[in-house]
Amino acid sequence: MSIRDDLRGEPAEQLEQRVVGMTLERWSGSDVLPGRDLLAVEEALEIRLVYGAAHQRTHKTISVTMRTPGNDLELAIGFLFAEGLVHGAEDVQTMQHCGPPAGPLQLQNVVRIELRPEAQIDQAGLERNFLSTSSCGVCGKASLEALPTLRHTRLPDGFVVPASIIHALPNVLRHSQTVFDSTGGLHAAALFDRYGQMQDLKEDVGRHNALDKLIGRQFLDGTVPLSDRVLLVSGRVGYELVQKAAAAGIPVLAAVGAPSSLAADLARDANMTLIGFVRDRRCNVYSAPQRICT
């Protein structure tokens, strides 16, 4: 069985682990009533990598990230791909959860990815291991030099999408966010074709985690580079989201919120179409406007 065959669908119990109930007090003016609410789960996930020659395997913890459980294997492989540590599904020998259940929900919070002995590993990339919070994908890196830069060639022209399609995407995304409907506490990353048909959607408390899950799924399906797809994210766009999208070959990145200056600079370097404030049939195009048509 191949790595791609191992990850068809997600266990139902993982879907249930994304939300927990909690008692609370509801205040309205001076009135206080007992109540109950649903919250998005946030727990740590450790990503371990096994690599090297068959006679001298190296075991290394690459990252600890705060995430919403579910699609953990896709998150791990998407992260490794965006960091340049894996290049194709053929590099991966096994992927699995390991270790005993832990935390309040007794979840398996360690993922172990073993590469084939012949897989080429970027030693410089291995030095970029870090603690990642749900709100910041680069927090805790050892130095400024460890921050990833654009490691890929400029994205080619040729893909074009109508502005009317871009304007319609947020509404499609909003009506597809099942866990967000329950909690109001998750970011989303969604992939669309040029006709506005959603191809995939992933949610997480961290916007960078949601994108890693999305890219990881496509990586395992063998559809990367995603040269004929539009990516929509539910919040703002920092440079790390642009870097991840560029790694996956995505030509158009749209967001409901604003991009940062560094995100816009990186998008221009990559010849990526970066679009912000997509709402109410309006948007701002910050780079590569040639891909948007009327």
Could you tell me the mean pLDDT? 87
CATH topology of the largest domain: Cytidine Deaminase, domain 2
Radius of gyration: 19 Å
Give the domain tally. 2
Number of strands: 15
**Continuous helix count:** 9
The outline comes out as: flat
Percent in helix? 25-40%
Succession of helices and strands:
HHEEEEHEEHEEHHEEHEHEHEEE
**For the record, what CATH class of the largest domain applies?**
Alpha Beta
> Strand order across the biggest sheet?
10-9-11-12-13-14
Going by helix content, strand content and strand pairing, the class is alpha/beta
Query: Which CATH architecture of the largest domain?
Result: 3-Layer(aba) Sandwich
Q: How much strand?
A: 25-35%
Biggest β-sheet strands, sense, barrel: 6 strands, mixed
CATH H-level superfamily of the largest domain: Cytidine Deaminase, domain 2
Outline the low-pLDDT stretches.
4-12
Distance between the amino and carboxyl termini: 46 Å
TL;DR?
Helices cover 26% and strands 31% of the residues. It is of the alpha/beta class and 294 residues long.
Write up what this structure looks like.
With 294 residues, the protein is an alpha/beta fold. It folds into 2 domains: 43-145, Ubiquitin-like (UB roll); 161-293, Cytidine Deaminase, domain 2 (3-Layer(aba) Sandwich). It has 9 helices and 15 strands. It is flat, with a radius of gyration of 19 Å. Residues 4-12 have low confidence and may be disordered.
Q: How would you summarize the topology of this molecule?
A:
Elements: H1 3-6, H2 12-16, E1 19-28, E2 31-40, E3 43-51, E4 58-67, H3 72-82, E5 92-97, E6 110-115, H4 123-126, E7 130-132, E8 161-162, H5 163-174, H6 178-183, E9 187-192, E10 198-204, H7 207-221, E11 230-233, H8 239-247, E12 252-255, H9 261-270, E13 273-279, E14 282-287, E15 292-293
Parallel strand pairs: 3-6, 4-7, 8-15, 11-12, 12-13
Antiparallel strand pairs: 1-2, 3-4, 5-6, 9-10, 9-11, 13-14
